[in-house]
Amino acid sequence: MKTPPEDHDLIRWLDGEMNDAERAAFETRLNADSQLKAEAESMQKLGERLRSSLPKDRPMPHADFFNSQIQVRIAQMELDEERSSARASSASWTEWFRLPWLAAAAAVVVAMVAIVSRPDSRVAASDVTQVLSTYAPNPDVVVRGYEDADAHATVLMLDGLPDLPADQKIVGYDVHGSRADKAMASVTLLGSDGQPLVVLAKDSRDQPRVWDLTTRG
Amino acid sequence: MPESSAPDTGEVPDLDLVRRSQDGDTRAFDVLVTRYRGRVYAMTYQMIQNETEAWDLAQEAFIKAWKALPKFKGDSAFYTWLYRITHNVTYDWLRKKKIRSDGEFDDSRTEHQVAAGALAVPRGDAAPDAALRNSELGAQIAAAIDQLSDDHKEVVLLREVQGLSYEEIAESMECSMGTVMSRLFYARKKLQELLKDTYENAA
Fold first, then answer.
1. How far is B202 from chain A (nearest CA, A)?
2. Residues of chain A with a CB closer than 8 angstroms to some CB in chain B
3. Each residue's pLDDT tens digit in chain A (217 positions)?
4. N or C, fewer C-beta in 10 Å, chain A?
5. Which chain A residues contact residue B114 at CB under 8 A?
6. Three-class SS string for chain A?
7. Model ipTM?
8. Whether B129 and A58 lie within 8 Å, measured CB to CB
9. Residues of B in contact with A5 (CB under 8 A)
10. Would you give the distance in Å from CA B78 to the centre of its chain?
């Protein structure tokens, strides 16, 4: 929407948006132009009536309830966020161990993969575990990991694994949940009854370790 | 000349309350809500002329402000930033209302987000402001403003009623200063025309 500059001048004069020099120049014009002066006075009167008729503040009905509702909603939002991030963290570890070929890899213990859940926005948004580093005791095994956004998953590739004998027993885990221990920097995977199955952590040399609790006792 | 400043409460400055709110202090945010709820509610009410919906929109504006607080850098006054959020919330509502009135949706109810456990949201009358009712001139002015387009209505309210500067209006309405001036000029011309009879009778 285009408005002639002289109209802008009138508006800026009315609203006190001119500097001293501009205002003096415009007031000279006003005094020389009776039509412009009448227009300016009419608009000034309009502004005065608007301001006197419409309240800047309007009393809020049920003001205390208004405030308390906002507090309740904020509390709910924060609770939802906590639950959501807890679910994301749990799901990422669980998904990792639900990969069938990873269970096979764990059984033959040929590779260790350091996976760290970082609570940054990218991880939260993609809802998958981010692979930060990998380690394979067997130098013939190459471990690669990446996030597949389309599949909504973390993919681990283990190249160079020896063929498994046909009678090899493959161990898998029926993971139903997880429990993170920040102090110990570990995650415990839990079975259907909440029993610990596997502990993921790092050893004293900061190397990733997996403790399989299902074969003990 | 309308003043373009935050309410002088003689209390904690807005920015201090904002910083505390950004650190998660909901009580500090509650003070900001109390400080600005009247102005936000006046804006939403004057824009849509319905107390119930205006109450909900004002609340929505504060909720969105809380969510967006981490992004608030303090480059502008808090209330200017809050007005921009109020503008967006109100325009979203107006857009949805227009779609509903165009017949694309049968559901004419406004979506409400009510806390779990709340029995009901109090509802006020959808009647115009009592002060305006008592004033024939005020009622005529309110009716004339209601005939303006949303953009013209808002620019007049922000300038004449809320007293924002051109720069603050441009920021709130996300438009240029030139657009602010053009809208103000045409809105005032239109109001002059609509209130011509009122002027003559009052003179």
1. 11
2. 1-3, 7-8, 10-12, 15-17, 42-43, 45-47, 49-51, 53-63, 65-67, 69-77
3. 455 566 788 889 999 999 999 999 999 999 999 999 998 998 898 888 888 888 899 999 999 999 988 988 888 888 877 777 776 665 555 555 555 555 555 544 444 444 444 444 444 444 556 666 677 777 778 877 777 777 777 777 788 877 766 666 556 667 667 777 766 667 777 777 888 887 777 666 666 677 777 764 4
4. C
5. 69
6. CCCCHHHHHHHHHHCCCCCHHHHHHHHHHHHHCHHHHHHHHHHHHHHHHHHHHCCCCCCCCCHHHHHHHHHHHHHHHHHHHHHHHHHHHHHHHHHHHHCHHHHHHHHHCCCEEEECCCCCHHHHHHCCCCEEEEECCCCCCEEEEEEECCCCEEEEEEECCCCCCCCCCCCCCCCCEEEEECCCCEEEEECCCCCEEEEEEECCCCCEEEEEHHHCC
7. 0.75
8. yes
9. none
10. 14
Question: Would you call A1 and B179 a contact, using CB atoms and an 8 Å cutoff?
Answer: yes
Residues 6+ apart with CB under 8 A from B107: B100
**Closest alpha carbon within chain B to A54:** B161
When CB atoms are compared, the residue of B37, B132, B182 closest to A53 is B132
